[in-house]
Amino acid sequence: MQENTFKKALANGEVQLGLWSSLCSPITAEIIAGAGFDWILFDTEHSPIEVASVLPLLQAATGGTASHAVRPAWNDRVLIKKVLDIGAQTILIPFVQTADEAAEAVKSCRYPPDGLRGVAGSTRASRYGRTKDYLHKAQDEICILVQVETGSALKQLEAIANTDGIDGVFIGPSDLSASLGHLGNPAHEDVQKEIENAGKIIRDAGKAPGILAGNAEDSKRYISWGFQFVACSTDSGLLTAAADNLVKWMRG
Q1: I need a labelling partner for 107 at 20 to 30 A (CA). Which of 99, 116, 137, 201 fits?
Q2: Torsions phi, psi of 90, nearest 5?
Q3: Known catalytic residues?
């Protein structure tokens, strides 16, 4: 079994700096995975990436410094099974609203009798059957992260974070700000207060809090609040900013 260094780092309380990826390109994945980040998140919820397209991204990122995580489009057992079978060891499950939904996510990631993940004999995850004890040891290296992103879910956060099998809880600032009446403004004071408090609740449950930040300044603030795995920006955002700044500088 390949060790999940990201899961181990979270268990040890280490801060993990990451980058969000939605550009759908293996070349981009290869570039950013070697940049020195601790983890890369390949997003299939808010991007055109389908499950089959995740495979070349994982392959391209394998030689880099970063562990790779995948966000399926939904808390769906079939989607989760497919993502795990192609080799993802860390999975971020979106829009978890209750402890029951968190428990279902855990079951989707575990084989019977502990869960309901379908069994396949020859997948990339098991090195096409060469990892003989994969079925018995897989869950030890799978990192399960659930995403809380609404005001309603925040009210259930303590129960969600205390769900057995959850390694971390990720706060989605964009949807959370919309849910709290501040659409497009996650920097609003009320939203930031909720985020800071959420981090405390997650840590008190003994789990790792995570979040997506828009820039380095926000990232450092979240880390100072105790957030442990922080996506410091997005690959699309970095490309957009670099292109815009170059044109502005040339024309200025």
Answers
A1: 201
A2: -120, 130
A3: 46
CA distances, 190 to each of 16, 154, 173 (Å)? 26, 13, 12
The end-to-end CA distance of the chain, in Å, is 54
Q: Which of 87, 73, 76 is nearest to 43 (CA)?
A: 73
Architecture of domain 5-251: Alpha-Beta Barrel (3.20)
The pLDDT value recorded for residue 215 is: 94
92-103 core/surface letters (b: 16 or more CB in 10 A; e: else): bbbbbbebebbb
**Each residue of 207-221: pLDDT tens digit?**
999 999 999 999 999
Q: Which residues contact 202 (CB under 8 A, 6 or more apart)?
A: 157, 161, 168, 169, 208, 209
Q: Are 102 and 160 in contact (CB under 8 A)?
A: yes
From residue 242, give the alpha-carbon distance in Å to each of 128, 186, 238.
Answer: 41, 23, 6
Whether the CB-CB separation of 46 and 74 falls below 8 Å is answered with no
Residue with tokens 């009210």: 155
Residues in the chain: 252
Q: Are 69 and 143 in contact (CB under 8 A)?
A: yes
**One-letter identity of residue 240:** T
Beta bridge pairs of residue 42: 21, 70
Helix, strand, or coil (residue 215): coil
Distance CA 174, CA 149 (A): 8
Which amino acid is it at 32?
I
Q: CA gyration radius for the chain?
A: 18
- Which of the residues in the chain have pLDDT under 50? none
Closest CA to 213 of 19, 28, 9, 66: 19
